[in-house]
User: Fold this.
Amino acid sequence: MTIQFSTKIFPKADLQNAKELKSSLKTLLAQTSDCLVLAYSKADLDSFVGVKGTKSKSGLLAELDLLSGGSVSHAHLLGDLDAQQASVCVLRGDKSWVASGIKAKRVLLLSLGDMRLESERSLVTFSKAARAALKALSSSSIENALWFIPSFALGHRADFIAEEVRLTIQYAGDQSYRFGVRQPTMKFKVKDKADAFKHLVFAGNNECAKDLKSAVEQGIAMVEGMHLAKDLGNLPPNICTPTYLGKAAQGLSKKVGLKVEVLGRKQIETLGMGSFLSVANGSDTPPQFIVMRHQGGKVGEAPIVLVGKGITFDTGGISLKPGEAMDEMKYDMCGAASVIGTMYSIGLMKLKKNVVGVVPTCENMPSAKATRPGDIVKSMSGQTIEILNTDAEGRLILCDALTYVERFKPKAVIDIATLTGACVIALGHVHSGLFSEDEGLVDALTKAGRASLDTVWRLPLDAAYQEQLKSNFADIANIGGRPAGSVTAACFLSRFTEKYKWAHLDIAGTAWKSGAAKGSTGRPVPLLVNFLLEQK
Ligand code: BES
Ligand code: MN
Ligand code: ZN
Assistant:
C-alpha cells in the first residue's frame, strides 16, 4: 500500500505562544481529519497536572482539555498520559466534540519526554516517538491524520524540522512497503492485508511552511527510491538478472530524465575489463555495465560518482558456497539497487548537482567456462590479479568499474557493496562498514547516516593491511586470508582508486534481513540521499 503525504499550512497556528495557543488549537481541531497528532513534553504535562499546592492548570494540555470537554483530564484520570518518551494516548471524540465545532475524530497525544534535558533532544529519541505514533496510526482504522509539525519542534532547533519530516516519511514509507505492488511485470500476489492508513498530512504555520514543503517533497522522493531498491533486492534471481537491472535503469531515463547507457559484453571487452569479465564468464546470462547520469548541476561541474555491486546471484563460483541460506545471495546486488534507487530519488527531487551512478552487474556461477582458483586476469587498470577464491568476486567487478569512473574526473567516488561476510561479523546488522582515508568524506557520510538513522561505522584502511594481498604470481591477490576480511577487501579496492577521493560502504549486514522478516531494507538509500542533499 502506498501512503500519500502532503502539507497543509495554517498560517498563524502556534502552540508555543501562550496568546495564540487557544485559537491555534481551535483551528487545528476544526480541520476535518481522522486524527490530529500533537506532541507534548514533560513540561506540558507538569503544567497540566499543576504544581503541588496550586490548582492553576495551564498550557497546551489544559487548553485542549477545555476545548474538548475534559477529554485530557479523563485520560489522565485513567492513567493514560505518561511523560515517558514515545508514550501514545489517543483521545476519541464524542458528541460534545461535535457540539464545540471539533472536526477531528481523534487526537493522538505523543510524549516527547523531557525536552529540557539535552539528552532527550536528539533525532534518535524523536525517531522513537515518531515510530510509536506511526505504529498507532497504522494499526487502527484511521485513514488519514494531520500531523502538526511545530509541536514536534518543541525544544528542538528549527533546522531539525527538515530531518524530522524526512525521517517520519522514511518510517511511514518503510512500514507501508509491500513486495509486489509496484512491479507490474510481476505476477506475485501481495500477501499482507493493506493497512487502512492512507494519507499523512503535515501541518505547519507560516514560519516553517517553506522548509516543510521541501522536506516533504524530499521525503517522498526518498521513499520512492527506497521502494525501488527494496523491490529490486527482493525480486528472485531468475527475474532480476543483469538485463533486468539494465532495463530498470533505462526505465528511469523516461521517468526522471536520467541519461542511461547500458554496455553489453562486447563493449565491456573493448574497455579491457578482464577482471569483471572473469566473474561473468561462468554464467550464460550476459553481463551489463550500467551508467546513469543526473545532470542537475552546472555543465562541467565535477560529479559525485556512486558505484554499486550488482551480483544478481552469488553461488561463489568454483569456490562454491555452502547450501545453507544460499537463496539470500540474490541480495548480492543490493549495492546496485541502492545506486539505482538513489538515482531515482535525486531525479524525482531534481537535485541541483551532477551525480553519476555506475553498476557493473553479472552472475557468479560455476560452469565449464567459469574462472578457476589460481587463474590470473588483467584488470582495466593494467594490474594483474591472482584469483585465489572465486567467491571474492565483488571486488573483481568493482575494481574495473572504479577504473572506468576516472573518466568523469569525479569530485568523489563512493562504492556500495554487499562485499564481505566478515563485515557482518564485525558490525552485525546495525551499521554499514565505512572505509575511507578522506576525512571530509568520512565526516559527511557519518553525519548523513546519523541524520537518516541509516548509520555507518568506520573501520580501518591503512597500509599495514595491504601486506595480506601479496601474490607470488601477479600484482595482487584477490583475498587476504581470514583476519580482517572486510578491511583487506577494502584494501583491494583502494588499489584502483588513486585518482580521486573515495569511500567504500560494506552493506553486507544492513542491506537485507534474514529469518521471518526476510526482505530488503532499502539501505543505504536514506544515507546516500541525505549525503547528496548536504553536499555543497
Ligand atoms: N557476497 C558475499 C559476501 C556476503 C556473504 C555478504 C554473506 C553477506 C552475507 C561475497 O561475495 C563473498 O562471498 N565474500 C567472501 C569473501 C572471502 C572469500 C574472502 C566472504 O565474505 O566469505
Ligand atoms: Mn562471493
Ligand atoms: Zn558476493
